[in-house]
Amino acid sequence: MMTVGEARRLGRVNLEGSVQNSALDADILLGHVLEWPRSRLIAEDREALSPESRAQFLKLLERRAAGEPVAYLTGKKQWFGMVLDVDRSVLVPRPETELLAEAAIDVCYSVEAHLCVDVGTGSGAVAIAIAGALPGLRMIGIDISREALAVAQRNAVRILGEGRVELLPGDLLATLKVEPDVVVANLPYITSDERSELGQDVLSEPAEALFAGPTGLEPYRRLFAQMVARQWRPEVLLEVDPRRAEGVASVATDAFPDAGLEIIPDLAGKDRIIRMSTLHHRPL
């Protein structure tokens, strides 16, 4: 009979060469099967696996080696101090998106925002993080996918309780009836030509949340056009592909020539967040 320690070693070996973090991924999957934290896997490595647990673990290893994201296999993702439900209808929240949430919290606080809108909310990660940090803020999450909104609703209610995050179906800001003080968005930004550069992990995620069109700037142009058409002038925070930061900044200044603009690097020094201040026409 296989022990926990033997299962950990088998998992690492089976995933080597096909995934980057083979030991960690194997432990996450084994912990998911056993409902154990990683610390217990290490401490009780001589415990035996039941035949059912062994079979379930081996099946998950096979799916992970084929490129299926760990978060989809477990249905969970730890992010920003929260455990989020995820499935194939939403993107898996990335570590760099925590920077977007942090920047949005700071901006909402500094401008004394009453209403913040998270466009393309997906799992609801960013909206929940902001609402959790600022209890007096009205927070709305919008997504074109009703399946994604169902995931966001489960997360918001479980983490914050009923009514803390409002969720609306819609294409960017099209269905929003009231002008927000702050708009936050992590929009699709991969071009169709870049599909061949992506690993199977990423390609397993919903295409509508990944691919932006020929230039990767199309969703930003539509977002700003919606704001201009309604004469809305909120604070705007965008997570962008570093390769596209200057292009997005150009789109922003074309729409709002008098706005203040700031590009914020991530921990690796790559241009990751664009903040545009249109609310009071002040420089940043």
Brief summary of the model shown:
The chain is an alpha/beta fold and 284 residues long. The chain is 41% helix and 18% strand.
Task: Name the descriptors.
11 strands, 11 helices, alpha/beta, Rossmann fold, 2 domains, Helicase, Ruva Protein, domain 3, 7-stranded mixed β-sheet, 284 residues, 41% helix, two-stranded antiparallel ribbon, single chain
* Known CATH architecture of the largest domain: 3-Layer(aba) Sandwich
Radius of gyration: 21 Å
Helix content: 40-55%
CATH domain class name of the largest domain: Alpha Beta
Low-confidence residue ranges: none
For the record, the count of structural domains works out to 2
* Global morphology: elongated
How many strands in all? 11
Number of helical stretches of at least 4 residues: 11
Intertermini distance: 63 Å
Name the average pLDDT: 94
| CATH topology title of the largest domain | Rossmann fold
Question: Could you walk me through the main structural features you see in this protein, from its secondary elements to its overall organization?
Answer:
The protein is α/β, with parallel strands linked by helices and 284 residues long. The chain folds into two domains: 4-66, Ubiquitin-associated (UBA) domain (Helicase, Ruva Protein, domain 3); 79-83 and 89-277, 3-Layer(aba) Sandwich (Rossmann fold), CATH 3.40.50. It is built from eleven helices and eleven strands. It has helices at residues 4-15, 22-34, 38-43, 51-65, 70-74, 97-110, 125-133, 146-160, 200-203, 218-230, 245-255; strands spanning 76-79, 82-85, 115-119, 138-143, 165-169, 182-185, 190-191, 211-213, 235-239, 260-265, 271-277. The strands form three sheets. The protein has a seven-stranded mixed sheet, with helices on both faces. The chain has a two-stranded antiparallel ribbon with strand order 1-2. The chain has a two-stranded parallel ribbon with strand order 7-8. Strand 1 (76-79) and strand 2 (82-85) form a beta hairpin. Helix 6 runs parallel beside helix 7 (125-133). The longest helix is centred in the N-terminal third of the chain and has 15 residues, at 51-65. It is elongated, with a radius of gyration of 21 Å. It starts with a helix and ends in a 7-residue tail after the last strand.
